[in-house]
Design a protein that fits this description.
This protein is α/β, with parallel strands linked by helices. 43% of the residues lie in helices and 15% in strands. Keywords: Coiled coil, Hydrolase.
Length: 336
């Protein structure tokens, strides 16, 4: 596979970047950026990249390990959505790209939407895969990170010793003919990454900044109107236990021009469960849509129109309240 890996130095910190380079000499269209989810890494996209190589996918693909994840550095830093979106912008700049389709899984979907909000002129399309940030519901495991003592509990549950024990049990199971499903292996890989103290710190920072005991606090729903001109594809697993597919369905209603594809036999990792179908859906979407070319001036115009419309609705509501109610004749009123 034409897959290269290198390390970028970004603001003094190391960022691991995988790049898929088409086998054909000429690439087509703007590059595709693939963003992983919380506690994951760019490795989650390897099955899709292998599919691209088999089918001759003609686009340049950038697959970073986000800060605090994979082989990138884990500094004591800001891991919020805005900071992560800025990292994606800087990676594009360092690789000589100014316009890209941004695809994100889970947390990566939230970062993709934040990127489109912060840097609309750089966002050609959005692909949201089991995306965070589209509704409050989320698994109780992630809500529990808001509890006191979560840091110590996580360190006791996931550390080099417990991970080694789990791997030994898994190896014994394979020796007896057992086999984990692709999505289960991927989830296990995500969890195992938390045995590293730096990855664990980043995980807790991100989870607590976005989620409390009631669910996801961060939401892009009120800003979706800004993405109406950006072609958007959503892909969800019908049996996603972490972020329910209903979030995708509701978002599709709010974005009439968007596309939603539900994988009936997938959970939270549809790109791992069926990379061939995922790749086909993605390629079809790229082929059938024109990339957005928004300017900052156009975004400002959209914001102004939305603000004026909201003010008009508010003023009408106030005017209705000021109209005095007419008293109807009753027993307490006597005619002169």
């Amino acid at each position: 596979m034409a897959l290269e890996a290198r390390t970028l130095t970004l603001h003094g910190q190391e960022i691991r970047l995988r790049e898929y380079l088409p086998s054909t000499r000429d690439t087509t269209g703007e590059p595709l950026v693939l963003l992983h989810g919380i506690s994951g890494s760019g490795q989650t996209w390897i099955p899709l990249l292998e599919h691209f190589e088999r089918t001759g996918f003609g686009r340049h693909v950038l697959v970073p390990d986000l800060p605090g994840h994979g082989d990138s550095g884990s500094p004591r830093a800001d891991y919020g959505l805005g900071a992560m979106a800025s990292v994606v912008r800087d990676i594009l700049a360092l690789t000589g790209n100014h316009h890209a389709t941004i695809a994100g899984h889970s947390l990566g979907g939230g970062i993709a939407m934040q990127f489109a909000y912060q840097f609309p002129e750089m966002c050609a399309r959005l692909v949201l895969v089991g995306s965070a940030g589209l509704g409050p519901q989320v698994t109780a495991v992630l809500r529990a990170t808001a509890l006191p003592g979560a840091k110590a509990t996580l360190a006791a549950a996931v550390n080099p010793v417990t991970v080694a024990i789990a791997r030994g049990i898994a190896a014994a199971g394979r020796g007896l003919g057992g086999k984990l499903a692709p999505e289960t292996r991927e989830l296990t890989r995500h969890l195992s990454s938390l045995s590293d103290a730096g990855r664990r710190r980043a995980f807790l920072f991100i989870a607590r900044s976005l989620i409390d005991l009631r669910g996801q606090r961060a939401s892009a729903v009120d800003k979706l109107y800004l993405a109406e001109q950006v072609p958007t594809l959503m892909i969800w697993g019908a049996h996603d236990p972490l972020i329910p597919v209903e979030h995708g369905r509701k978002t599709a209603e709010l974005l009439p021009g968007s596309r939603l594809t539900v994988f009936e036999n997938a959970k939270h990792f549809p790109h791992v469960a069926d990379p061939a179908r995922f790749g086909a859906e993605l390629e079809r979407f790229l082929d059938e849509t024109e990339p957005a070319r928004l300017t900052l001036e156009e975004v400002v115009e959209i914001l102004v129109r939305a603000s004026e419309a909201a003010n008009e609705v508010e003023n009408r509501a106030k005017a209705v309240k000021k109209v005095p109610e007419k008293l109807s004749p009753g027993p307490h009123l006597r005619r002169a």
